[in-house]
């Protein structure tokens, strides 16, 4: 008998950790955590099993296929946008081949289980690429299909994987003679920058806001790598987890597209610094632009249009800017770093 589980890849990342906490509290299917690094000790009691391994290791994926009945895959493992630019081909292997490996696992599972396995995939505002700051300033909140010309390896990878997921969901091996086939139930979210009170991201380009917050809470100076006027949308981590779970739980018939924008509030780096100073009056925040990272953020939209998610599956964030800083980020950070 194969053990029935939900699989989380990239389980040790920021989103993975939040997802494990929420899913284990809700008591649904037991969790199998997969990550390149050992799972954090405090999360171990929350999962049925945790495996240290690489999503490019086909033997490992074959082993998972033989041991487990996977009902849902939350495929979170990825190189983020800044890190991916240092080793673009390695990022492509993990972000694209890794995703195809997981989709292949999900389709094999769908076929022997004779029902579609759910595959939940976080994409990103990095899938957009606006040509210049004038266009960015004049643009309305972007819909999913606007300005899909990303300039980073990560953005190209995410955009392509959205398409490859749609292919596995609707058109996989469409010319092969088949009796009855079950495809993957692929669902994807495009996240804005995410901010967690518990963890700092590693290797992203929207990291300047979480970094300035965590530095202030630790009483350390911080130099933002983008200009004060740099503006993109953000979301508090609890809303990111809420949106992943809500999309995963939505009835298939309600979904009219495979990719949905979700967002909460738009913030300039200077406005973020002001919020941080209100919570931590001794914060020492300066601005020291990194030209390359700045260029990446300048191609990302200031606002996302998430009306399709609101319409199809009732998406609504709990944390606007005020609540995110004053009821979640600042109080939790103060408590965390006081001990
Ligand atoms: N936050 C991510 C990054 O900066 C984008 O999805 O890479």
TrEMBL record:
InterPro entries in alphabetical order: Epimerase_deHydtase, NAD(P)-bd_dom_sf, NAD(P)_epim/dehydratase
Superkingdom classification of source: Bacteria
Pfam short name (any one): Epimerase
GO MF, any single term: L-threonine 3-dehydrogenase activity
Gene Ontology annotations of biological process type: L-threonine catabolic process
NAD-dependent epimerase/dehydratase domain sequence ranges: 7-262
Protein family according to the UniProt entry: Belongs to the NAD(P)-dependent epimerase/dehydratase family.
Entry protein name: NAD-dependent epimerase/dehydratase family protein
Species the sequence originates in: Phototrophicus methaneseepsis
